[in-house]
Write a structure and sequence with these properties.
Shape: elongated
Number of strands: 17
Number of helices: 16
Length: about 425
């Protein structure tokens, strides 16, 4: 009967950590710390408590183990308050020790088994709370470490529930991720039990909320991963993706380049009779995808990003990221796209601000208006100045690092040595 409550307490604590996705050593350490906390609360002392676990029988015993002293020993002055407190836990004054063993004398090792069966309800509850917190911390750390390095990679999961339009997705053993509403494709509808494919967009960590894996089907990485999975040439590295821009669920542009001149990068992505790109389009709720052949020459790249529109004039605004384009009137609507979608995606793809005008509209402007359009704007001047300031700071730092006084050597002899 004496051991029955002890077994029940241990089982009660162990039941809290069953099937937790953490290592056994972490569970054992947390279990020990929980019992130490409960024992100290039961004894109402902050002294050294040892927990002995028999791995064969799974029996757990708790002991108070301290050295009996007349006075606490002197400590090194360089020790911190925390270090002193830890050392103090190993000692007990003789008067206090005799409350546990009336025969205790200075120099004795006081060892006393703490009757777990006598732990009060409050002490047991404290142990449970302590254990739960430790396991949660361990789980949070493991999730963070496991998925942080996988940001940008594809993952498959199953929708377990929906909270305020956010999908809670099971992505592994007792690991749930969230697919926020803003990271979903608007035209899609998922239900509990639906399979879902997404990329890991981020992994956040907070003491209050724990580690959280954030998924996305709306960012550029998701489109990149779909092409990487569908196109062997991209997976193998022969064809490289140079840029992606998306209006999720509606339209996207992707720029590709082949390291092997014998391989057509655009044709590789399209596939036989469009099979490869169509498989991706279906995954993206019929999102239209423009595949652009990347070119290191900016003008060529811009022209291809807006093809088949005929660009009759290309002018880079000096010192800015803006480019003024004049297109044939019959191509103007196509170049701009519905609500400016096409030119916006092209701008994102090439990394430039594109100002598009029709031939007739441009020809009707007077020279002063044209000059004003081709002159940097006020905000562009500020950006230019900020960029120049950063460049100057970097140049000064680099110059300082490389112009520190060094002994000048002539014919293998230091000038400092010769002056001496």
């Amino acid at each position: 009967m004496k051991n029955e409550p002890k077994i029940n307490l241990v089982e009660a604590l162990k039941s809290l950590v069953q099937d937790k996705n953490v290592e056994d050593s972490i569970v054992t350490s947390a279990l020990k710390d929980a019992l130490i906390s409960a024992a100290r609360k039961y004894l109402q002392i902050n002294k050294k408590i040892d927990v002995d676990i028999d791995t064969e029988t799974d029996e757990i015993r708790v002991f108070l183990r301290v050295e009996v002293v007349d006075d606490y020993p002197d400590y090194d002055a360089e020790m911190t308050a925390e270090e002193v407190e830890v050392m103090d836990e190993s000692y007990m004054l003789v008067q206090e020790a005799q409350e546990f063993n009336e025969d205790a004398q200075p120099g004795d090792l006081l060892e006393m088994e703490v009757p777990v069966s006598a732990f009060g309800r409050q002490a047991i509850q404290t142990a449970k709370q302590f254990l739960i917190q430790r396991i949660r911390t361990a789980e949070r750390d493991k999730i963070y470490e496991t998925y942080r390095s996988r940001i940008g990679t594809m993952i498959n999961g199953e929708v377990v529930r929906i909270e305020n339009k956010n999908l809670i997705v099971s992505i592994g053993r007792q690991t749930e991720a969230v697919l926020p509403a803003k990271e979903q494709i608007a035209k899609e509808r998922f239900h509990q039990g639906s399979s879902v494919k997404a990329v890991i967009a981020d992994v956040t960590d907070s003491t209050k909320g724990g580690a959280q894996v954030i998924l996305s089907r709306a960012n550029g990485d998701f489109l990149k991963e779909l092409f990487r999975q569908e196109v062997p040439e991209i997976y193998e590295g022969t064809v490289e993706m140079k840029g992606v821009s998306r209006d999720p669920g509606f339209r996207a542009k992707i720029a590709v380049y082949s390291r092997d001149e014998r391989i057509d990068p655009v044709g590789s992505c399209v596939g036989m009779k469009g099979a490869r790109v169509q498989a991706i389009v279906r995954e993206l709720a019929n999102e239209r995808i423009d595949i652009v052949h990347w070119n290191p020459d900016l003008e060529t790249y811009v022209r291809r990003s807006l093809a088949p529109a005929n660009i009759v004039k290309f002018v880079e605004v000096s010192g800015t990221r803006r480019i003024v384009l004049v297109v044939a009137d019959e191509d103007l609507a196509q170049a701009i796209g519905r609500n400016g979608q096409n030119v916006r995606l092209a701008s994102q793809l090439v990394g430039r601000d594109l100002d598009v005008f029709g031939e007739k509209e441009w020809s009707e402007k007077d020279e002063e208006t044209k000059e004003k359009i081709l002159t940097p704007r006020a905000n562009e001047y500020r950006q230019m100045n900020q960029a120049n300031d950063r460049k100057l700071q970097l140049d000064e730092l680099f110059t300082k690092d490389n112009t520190e006084e060094q002994p000048i050597e002539e014919d293998g002899v230091s000038m400092e040595d010769s002056e001496a």
